[in-house]
Amino acid sequence: LADAADPKRWLEQMSAALPEAEASLLARAFEAARELYRGKGLVSTGEDLFSHAVSAAAIVADLNLLTDAIVATLLFAVPDHKPDWQGWMTENFGQTVTVLVDGVGAVRRITELARIDKLETPEERARQAETMRKMLLAMVADIRVVLIKLAWRTQTMHYLPHVHDEAVRRAIATETLDLFAPLANRLGVWQ
Predict the structure, then answer these.
(1) Residues 6 or more apart whose Cβ sits within 8 Å of residue 11
(2) How far apart are CA 125 and CA 112, in angstroms?
């Protein structure tokens, strides 16, 4: 278990456990994320984007996913900060990472379009959440996309006590409880 609280130390610990080519890929992604995310925070919570990315990548690493998935987790937000991201990412990190990042972005767009907290009754929310879980699992070509999204959400939940806006905390917690927690349980990564 590498410690994501100190990003540089996390990178050193992760790199030490990887073959040289994979360690190099991870280091390049780490530096690219640090540069692209410098001074930026998550819109929903205000958390530092780079710290969030490293912490989510540590969660993905703890799931024993391949280096491509860890790299994609670090670079998850690149499409929001780099207009020509797909060509750049494919050239620098490979097609697999690009496909994973693109897939996670698609999942994010779908969940944003179908916010379940707007529905009035618990029954309506439960039906919508189940429909969303089924749709997410059906549309994803690589299950790592869902695991990366779950890692990002897990990190958001870790940070949630630092968010001062009660309505934001409640909306994120409700969506997590209704959609993401059952999805994680269904995939066997309830922890």
Answers:
(1) 26, 27, 30
(2) 15
CA distance 127 to 75: 32
Token readout for 143 is 């299950």
Q: Helix/strand/coil (H, E, C) string of 1-40?
A: CCCCCCHHHHHHHHHHCCCHHHHHHHHHHHHHHHHHHCCC
Cβ-based neighbour number of residue 100 at 10 Å: 27
Q: What tokens does 14 get?
A: 């992760």
How many residues can be counted in the chain? 191
- 190 phi/psi in degrees, rounded to 5: -60, -30
- C-beta of residue 89 within 8 angstroms of C-beta of residue 99: no
| Distance in angstroms between the alpha carbons of the first and the last residue of the chain | 15
Beta bridge partners of 158: none
Residues 6+ apart with CB under 8 A from 168: 44, 45
pTM of the model: 0.85
57-102 pLDDT, tens digit each:
999 999 999 999 999 999 999 999 999 999 999 999 999 999 999 9
| Identity at 52, one-letter amino acid code | H
For position 189, what pLDDT does the model report?
82
Structure tokens at 11: 């990178």
